[in-house]
Structures are given as structure tokens and as C-alpha cells.
Amino acid sequence: MSLNCFTVVMSVYHADCPMLFQNAVDSVLNQTVKPTEIIIVADGPVGAGINEVLKNLSINNVIKVIKMDENRGLAFARKLAISESSNELIAVMDSDDVCVQDRFEVQIQEFSDENTDVIGGWIEEFNVYPGDQGLIRKTPIDYESIYRLGKWRNPINHVTLMFKKSSYNKVGGYSELLANEDWEMISRMLANGLVIRSIPKVLVHVRGGDDMVKRRRSSRQFWGEMRAFKLMYKCNYLSLLQLIANVSLRTAIRILPISFTAYLYSNVLRKNQH
Length: 274
Fold this sequence. Notes:
This protein is an alpha/beta fold. The chain is 41% helix and 19% strand. The chain has a domain at 1-96: Spore Coat Polysaccharide Biosynthesis Protein SpsA, Chain A (Alpha-Beta Complex), CATH 3.90.550.10. The chain has eleven helices and ten strands. Strands 1, 2, 3, 4, 5, 6, 7, 8, 9 and 10 form a ten-stranded mixed sheet that branches. α1 runs parallel beside α2 and α7 (181-191) runs parallel beside α9. The termini are far apart.
């Protein structure tokens, strides 16, 4: 496996902001170690602004743009991009986030250990510009800690992932869920003994905002979580007791006031860097 060749997969859809999408792609193109391939899937029809960005990007021979006739969701778009990739190493990127400049350089080094299947890292959440909130989502670093935490919450910041395509294919890739398709796939990887680790460093600046808590309390999110938990149980990652506890916890969170949920999310599940 060549450590010098890797693919970045992205998707964009009609509700994305053209400027933020361009910024996200620029942060990929301006890396200290640059990808040899970038595959962008337009998930259904997009507006004139996004189309203009895609048109300009398609001039770059490193970038391949795939346009879909209908919106099929993030999991399907990522699956399509990965199936079209020509490299063994795959990096995930969202359409409105910003990579730190040495993200890929740092991650690629970890694959010098041939037993490594997946590498993630920490994220910093911001509202307007990186660093304006100082909220960092730190995840466990070692496999054992990731395995334990994964039974209760997503133990990996998915937007930081880099993984082997062969490892991804081994577990069947993403399930097409309403939500939590990333956590569910990670659970199958862990259940199948794949080696997952995280780097104790911020790799991606992630756009948060007030809408994030509302999205996480939505009915779409809830039913996506319920199906994900069912699949986690089915692959023998969750015990029956853990399945019941997770379902009960997620149900209770939606009954509590949104202000409490926002406090929990910002002050308990995130760490302030100041």
C-alpha cells in the first residue's frame, strides 16, 4: 500500500452554502500532503452557486465530480464516492468544515503500522470562524477505550476519518440510515476486530451553531438512532441490556428541556480549550 496516494471523498447537496463548500475544498487542496484524488458527489440537484463551484473545480485533474439525479442522502453519496475511488487510503471530508493544514500528513504517518485500519482525530467546533468558541471534542486515543465508549456514543469524530478501503469493504461500508450511519459503521468495524485509533490533535474545524442541538433532537435523528442501535445489537456489538439503556437514554433526552440538552452537549460532551 502506497502512503503517498490517497482519496478524499466529499458530498454536497442543495442546502449547502457555495462559499463554505469552496472553503472546505480549499482546505483539502492546501494541505502539506495533498491527495492524489478528490471525489465530490453532488447528492441530487443543486443550485446555481454550487454548480458554479463544481464547474470551476472540475478543471482540476485531481478532482472528479459525480452528479446524481436525485437526493439519496449522505451515506449513499459517500458509498458512491468510495466505490469510484482508485486508492486504498480514503479520507472523509464534509462540505462545510475546514481541515487543519497538516491533517493528512499526520494521519498518513499512522498507517506505517500495517495493522492500522482506521485513524481519526479531534475536532474543534466553531460558529463563525475557527476558534471562536474554543470547544474541542476529544475522543479516546487507543483501541480499547474506543471500543468501550462506542457502546454509548460515537467514539470517533467521523469527519476526521481516514481508513483503508479494504477494511471498509470488509464490513460492508455505510448503512443507509436516517442518522448515525457513521457510528453504526464504526460499531461493525469494532465488532469485527478492526484496529481503530485516534490522534490527540485537532484535525478538522467543524461548523456547529445553535441549530446543531435542534437537529440532534429531531424525529429524523431519533429514528435514525433507533435503527442504528438495532443494527449494533444485531452485529453483537451491543448487549440486550446496552441496547435498552441506549434507547431509554435517547428517549429521555428528548423529553428534557432543550436548554438542558444544549448545556449537556457544550459543557459535558465537549472540552473548552481555554
